[in-house]
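Students often ask why inverse folding is considered easier than folding. One informal answer: many sequences map to the same fold, so there is more than one right answer. In these notes we will look at a single instance of the problem. The structure comes first.
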């Protein structure tokens, strides 16, 4: 039976009408129907450290976080976040006024945009962008202004002139993501310095999504924008336990920033979930205090997986952009004689038994992203081997 209302108005409001269902739902359903290996959605197929999982069990058993934790997050975790920012980046934050724990980075992004964007404000985002950015900018009533990362050799680069040209008197903020999903680009110190200079000159806020901060390769360095001159007081930095500790289902994220910014984000956050993930907050506090060896091993393991998948994709004939960060590889399907990544991804499960995501859905300028496709390598080595073997058989001539 159709749902009826008294008017002929569509049920989904106009702000969200363009965001029907995500590509992940479509592609995961396709994987299920065809039995294909799913390298589409970016979640690990093995859980993170046993000690961290046990810490969650202990918190549950001992009754830590089973009832509403404090709105800003449990003090143990807020302190652990400040220790992490100091240990890796030399940034110091006050755990009481400059840290907010959220239901994953997703809620941090939503709350930051809902708090800081006035209807009609322009928000600059790098395209291809993480899919929740566009929807959250829309929910906040903002207008998104995409700046396209363009292929240059074997990486996608930010054109700083294009970024500068995108700023207008209506621009409120820049929404940055480094290491960048899906292209794998890690912004360099010089690029970040240019973004910082622009933000200061035009008095812009910046929200920076750094959930892949620990997944950088080949000597690339993750540099938090907040560490650039003039940026600490105008930057909302977002982190998450999901990607760094391979517990994406726990949904523990955080915001760090100047007290006024964090207070603003908290105002929006308190009416979204209020609080979330009580016992997991205690476990993530322990995870953030793992020795440097954990982070080094995590990186080394993913570097090996990156190389395995990148080489397999190249052997199958794709044009490979070897990522400097994240756990995704973007490829160009044109060397295989195709030009439409979306059609290619819809056909690939039947043809090759592997699922990937067409980058075009992360662009406003769809034609700029048309030939690009994203594969995730946060999967067991045996799965990546099987997937690359299937791709080679299907496509290599
Ligand atoms: C996975 C991801 C997120 C979401 O993180 P959660 O902590 O699971 O909410 C946000 N931004 C980017 C770029 C991501 O890839």
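Output (designed amino acids):
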């Amino acid at each position: 039976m159709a749902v009826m209302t008294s008017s002929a108005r569509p049920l989904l409001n106009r702000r969200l009408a363009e965001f029907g269902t995500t590509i992940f739902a479509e592609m995961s359903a396709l994987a299920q129907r065809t039995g294909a290996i799913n390298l589409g959605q970016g979640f690990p197929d093995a859980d993170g450290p046993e000690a961290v999982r046990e810490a969650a069990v202990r918190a549950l058993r001992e009754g830590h976080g089973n009832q509403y934790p404090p709105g800003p997050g449990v003090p143990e975790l807020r302190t652990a976040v400040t220790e992490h920012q100091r240990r890796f980046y030399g940034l110091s934050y006050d755990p009481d006024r400059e840290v907010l724990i959220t239901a994953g980075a997703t809620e941090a992004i939503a709350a930051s945009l809902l708090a800081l964007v006035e209807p009609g404000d322009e928000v600059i985002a790098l395209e291809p962008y993480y899919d929740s950015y566009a929807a959250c900018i829309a929910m906040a009533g903002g207008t998104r202004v995409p700046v396209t990362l363009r292929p240059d050799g074997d990486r996608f680069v930010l054109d700083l002139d294009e970024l500068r040209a995108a700023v207008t008197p209506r621009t409120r903020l820049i929404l940055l993501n480094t290491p960048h999903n899906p292209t794998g680009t890690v912004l360099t110190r010089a690029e970040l310095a240019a973004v910082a200079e622009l933000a200061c000159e035009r008095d812009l806020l910046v929200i920076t999504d750094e959930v892949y901060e620990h997944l950088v390769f080949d000597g690339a360095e993750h540099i938090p924008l907040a560490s650039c001159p003039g940026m600490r007081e105008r930057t909302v930095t977002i982190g998450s336990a999901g990607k760094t500790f391979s517990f994406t289902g726990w949904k523990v994220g955080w915001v760090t920033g100047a007290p006024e910014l964090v207070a603003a984000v908290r105002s929006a956050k308190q009416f979204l979930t209020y609080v979330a993930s009580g016992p997991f907050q205690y476990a993530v506090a322990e995870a953030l205090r793992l020795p440097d060896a954990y982070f080094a091993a995590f990186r080394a393991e993913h570097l090996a997986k990156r190389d395995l998948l990148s080489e397999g994709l190249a052997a199958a004939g794709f044009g490979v952009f070897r990522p400097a960060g994240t756990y995704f590889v973007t490829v160009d399907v044109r060397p295989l004689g195709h030009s439409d990544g979306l059609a290619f991804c819809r056909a690939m499960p039947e043809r090759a038994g592997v699922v990937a995501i067409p980058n075009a859905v992360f662009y406003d300028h769809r034609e700029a992203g048309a030939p690009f496709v994203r594969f995730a390598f946060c999967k067991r080595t045996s799965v990546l081997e099987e997937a690359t073997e299937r791709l080679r058989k299907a496509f290599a001539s």
